[in-house]
Amino acid sequence: MQRLGDAVRFFVGAVLVLLVTTAAGLGGAVAGAKGTERVLGVLGLGVLLHLLSGVLLLRLLYRRREYPWRRAIPIALGWTAVVTAAALATFWPQPPVAPPTLLDRGAPFARVRLPTGSEIAFAQIGDATLRPRIVFLHGGPGGFVRASDVELARSLAASGFSVVLYDQAGGGASAPLPVRDYTVARHVADLEALRAHLGDERVALVGQSWGARLAYEYFVAHPERVTRMVLLSPGPLRAAHASFDVSRAGGRGPSFPPYVLLAFVLFQLSPESALDYMPRDELDAYAASQLEAASRRAVCRSTLDRLRPFEPTRGADAYGMIAIRTQIGNADAPAPPANVRVPSVVLRGECDYLVRAAAQDYADVIGARVVDVPGVGHQLWFPELAPIVARIVEALREGAPPPPQVPAPAR
User: Fold this and answer.
1) Which of 28, 119, 251, 347 lies deepest, with the highest CB count within 10 Å?
2) H-run or E-run covering 217
3) Do the bridges between strand 344-349 and strand 110-113 make them parallel or antiparallel, or are there none, so unpaired?
4) Which of 91, 123, 145 is the last residue of a domain?
5) 232 φ, ψ (degrees, to nearest 5)
C-alpha cells in the first residue's frame, strides 16, 4: 500500500508539475511578447518562469530531506530543457522556398504614391475616357490581382466598360505597410485616394470575396462616390457568419503548421514580436505555397477538372491578411448610412465555402439582390462570367432589375 500511495503521489505531482510549469512558461512568454520586440526575450522569460515554477513546486510537493534544493534544481532544469527542446522542434520556422517573381498577369501595372502614404500598383483596362469607371477589388485580405481578374476586366472592357484593377497595399506589386498600419480604414482611404487620382467623381465597384467587404466599407464611408456594386462571393459582414462549409468545395484549403499558428498568436500580442519570430518574406513564402490549396477550395468538387494548372507566384501579403482578419473577425461591419441605397447585386456560387448567411447579410443591410450561380464555388471565375457581370452592371446603370438566376457554366 505504501508503494501504491507513493506511486499515486508521484503521478499527481508529475501532472501538477506539467500543468503549473506549462502555464507559467506560457504566461512568461505572453508577458515577454508584450514587453519586447525580440522573440529571444519572449522565449527567455518563458523558459525562466518554467524553470522557477518547477523548482518551487518540487519543493512544495516533496518536503522530505531527500528532496533538497540541490536535487529540485537539476530535476526542474532537466524538465525545462526537455520542454524547451520540444517547443523549439515544434515551433521553429521552416519556411518553404519563396517563388522568385510575381508572375505576369497579362496587363501593365503602373505604381502611384497616394496621399495616404501607400504605394499602389494599378492597371487600366479598356477606354479610360468611359464613365462611370469600374474599379475591381480583389479578394484576400492580403491578396493581389490575378491573371483571371485581368481576363474578367478585359471581357468587361469588351462590353464597353473602363476598368481599373489594383493591388491593395502590401499585395502583388504594391509596397507593404508597417504591420500596425493595416486596417480596414486604411484600405478604404487608399481606395478613395485612388478614385481621386483617377479623376472620377463616382465609380462602380466589382468586389470579389474580401474585395466585396471592402466595397461595402467604402460605400459606408463614401456613399456619394458609388454608382452601383456587384459583389462576387462576398466576405461576411458579421463575425457570427464567418464560418466555413467545405462539404461541396474542391478541397479543405490551406493548412497551418504550428510555427505559422505561433506567428498568428504572437501577432495578437505584439506584431513586432511576430515579425522578429518570422520575418515578412518568410511568412509570405509560406502563404505563396498555400495558394494552390486555396484555389482548390474555391471551386466545386465536381469541377476540379476545370481548374487551371497552378503556377507558384509571389504576391501574397501574409501579415496584411492576419491584421485585417483579426480586425474584421472581432467586430461586425458598420451600419450603412440611413436612407441611402445603391443598386447592388450579390453573385454567390452554389459550392461557396462561405455560408449563405454571409451573402444574405448584404440583402438585409443594403437591399442587394442575391443571385445563385450553379456549378461554381467561391472563385466566381469562368469564361462565361464576364458577359453576365457586364449585363448586370449595365442593368443596374439603367435601373433594370438583375437576372433572377445565372446559368451554370458550360462543361
Assistant:
1) 347
2) helix 210-221
3) unpaired
4) 91
5) -100, 115
Element (H, E) at 32: helix 2-35
- At residue 17 the predicted structure's pLDDT band, cuts being 50, 70 and 90, is low
Buried b (16+ CB within 10 A) or exposed e, 100-128: eebeebbbebeeeebebebbbbbbbbbee
Q: Is residue 229's pLDDT more than 80?
A: yes
Question: How far is Cα of residue 210 from the mean position of the Cα atoms in its chain?
Answer: 8
CA 145 to CA 211: how far, in whole Å? 11
Q: What is the pLDDT of residues 322-353, one digit of tens each?
A: 999 999 988 899 999 888 888 899 999 889 99
Q: β-strand 119-125 against 369-373: which pairing, if any?
A: unpaired
Contact indicator for 358, 124 with CB cutoff of 8 Å: no
Is 209 in contact with 235 (CB distance < 8 Å)?
yes
Q: Which domain holds residue 56?
A: 2-91
The verdict on 42 and 133 lying in the same domain is no
* Residues 120 and 77 placed together within one structural domain of the fold: no
Length of the chain: 411
pTM of the prediction? 0.85
Cell of 84: 524547451
Beta sheet of 119-125, edge-to-edge order: 110-113, 119-125, 163-167, 133-137, 203-208, 226-232, 344-349, 369-373
CA separation, residue 258 to residues 41, 86, 87 (Å): 20, 12, 10
Q: Are 172 and 110 in contact (CB under 8 A)?
A: no
Q: Domain check: are 163 and 233 in the same one?
A: yes
Give the three-class secondary structure for 134.
strand
Which DSSP state fits 114? -
Give the pLDDT score at 43.
65
Is there a single domain that holds both residue 117 and residue 215? yes
Instruction: Specify whether the CB–CB gap between 142 and 171 falls below 8 A.
Output: yes
Number of structural domains found in the chain: 2
